[in-house]
Amino acid sequence: xxxxxxxxxxxxxxxxxxxxxxxxxxxxxxxxxxxxxxxxxxxxxxxxxxxxxxxxxxxxxxxxxxxxxxxxxxxxxxxxxxxxxxxxxxxxxxxxxxxxxxxxxxxxxxxxxxxxxxxxxxxxxxxxxxxxxxxxxxxxxxxxxxxxxxxxxxxxxxxxxxxxxxxxxxxxxxxxxxxxxxxxxxxxxxxxxxxxxxxxxxxxxxxxxxxxxxxxxxxxxxxxxxxxxxx
Length: 231
Known about the structure:
Elements lengths: L1 E7 L3 E8 L2 E8 L5 H16 L3 H7 L2 E6 L1 H8 L5 E6 L5 H4 L11 H5 L16 E4 L2 E2 L5 E3 L3 H13 L4 E4 L2 H14 L4 E5 L7 H13 L3 H13 L1
Helix pairs in contact: 1-9, 2-9, 3-8, 6-7
């Protein structure tokens, strides 16, 4: 087996190389300006222990496994982009309300029942970055009120004016039209994910909008890492 496993953290980049029965661990500082640099430095340390050249290892490797906590860190520390959300009209308070249970998540039963002392965590998306569009679909998926493209454009413009840097759409039907209008109404905004707004997973649906922009794309890192090996 010839495998490289790399975990890019906020401070260190850890590397484990499994090579024909040998297992070598190595570590380097994470280089936030170019994550591939820290990746390669950690890999160089491992290759030196194995007495191998990095480019030879990259040419012969069976698989490269990549993991990172950068997105998770950004989510916990609230360092991600300002996420804007487009929801169906009438559901603008879904995220801030958090099913009425937001104050008790993660607490023991005694603390959950002490509602007078309960405090709510700040929502991932504030009310000021939530906009709605008029549309309706019934329980069977039948369209009762069609979505207006102009509604989508207005919502996008309002979100951009409010400071949104990433976008989450609350309904699958909204997504295609929102993305289609993004280039004209909000050229710099990043596309996010979509989620069923009636469900309680509103915060979960907003997370890709934060992590998707903050968390590095594995393909981008891969291109930089393998560039020298195959040129």
